[in-house]
Amino acid sequence: MSTTPELDTTDRDALWPMLGWVLFAISVTILMAAVLVRGVMRAVVLDVVSFWPAWVLAAVIALAMWPLQRKGVARVAAIAPLLLFSWLTGAVGLHYSGWDLLPSAAGDLRGPEVAGTESAELSLEMSGMLVLVPGTDRLYEVELSRSGGSTGPAEALERRTDDDVVVRLLERPDSGWFESGGWKVTISRAPVWSLSLAADQVDVDVATVSLGSLEVISDGDVRLGSPVGTVPIMINGSVQLRLPRSASVEVVGNATVPDGWETTETGSRVVGVGTSSYVVTVVPGASLVVEYW
Q: Which residues of the chain have pLDDT under 50?
């Protein structure tokens, strides 16, 4: 009758350092593969390298533990790779959180103060995914998506006249390390906005924004609040438009609309509450689906 020999305590302790280094090596390999296939923006490498004091500290700890290893306490050799793994995952986590002290934050953009601005015009041209939401205390902010892609960071051209501001956002040609999957643009709720948005894909929520006009040259979702005055909207793409039930809307062109809308000679319409309304023009070849939220 044969038995399988068990590892003695020394052999088991020796496994810990090996497992620690294997875990760290696998993590580095996965991260570099994600960068190469554009699953994550390349600037994550800059963020990880910026933690170089942690790598130095790990080397110092490894050297300090060397006498214990020589005395047969092999398990302490696992401290260095486990520290490296922890700091690597921590750096990547801070990268995805958009921590503004990391090198990757250099690709983000902050607009001017909003004080004194009554109306603002924003035109935007980009590739990739655009997420646009309200909520900043400045006129606008642009944050790079931490996913990988070929969208360059934003540069802004601004013109101010009295209490009006005109902003144009374009991709910088010198993207370098800062190419990403797209932008998250946050705008102030203070002014009345005229928006012209051209992107590969959009996810726009301006339900709490005072809207003067909207042009969407893209596919994606757009969420609106109640109109103030007559608000023209132009759709050029495959768009799902979400509206409050109280809104009056006239659609010029082909669109899929909720039940109960009136068919007109040029499209369809619904009469809601008040005298304000959206006038939505759907260009030929575009696709619009209107839903209530």
A: 1-2, 7
Number of neighbours of residue 243 by Cβ within 10 angstroms: 24
Q: CB–CB of 147/178 below 8 Å? A: no
Q: 253-274: b or e for each residue (b if 16 or more CB lie within 10 Å)?
A: bebebeeebeeeeebbbbebee
pLDDT attached to residue 73: 53
Q: What residue segments make up the domains of the chain, in order of their start?
A: 9-104, 108-292
Round to the nearest angstrom and report the end-to-end CA distance of the chain: 73
Residue keyed to tokens 């990880």: 48
pTM: 0.84
| Exposure on the CB side of residue 129, measured as CA atoms within 13 A | 13
List, for residues 75-89, the tens digit of each pLDDT value: 667 777 888 888 888
The per-residue pLDDT for range 170-186, each reduced to its tens digit, is 999 877 789 999 999 99
Closest listed residue to residue 105, CA positions, set 148, 62, 70, 153 = 153
Cα–Cα distance for residue pair 168/21, rounded to 1 Å: 49
SS3 assignment, position 77 = helix
What are the E-state strand segments in 13-104?
A: none
- Give the HSE-up count for residue 167: Cα atoms under 13 Å, Cβ half-sphere: 27
Residue 27 identity: S
**Residue 95 has what pLDDT?**
86
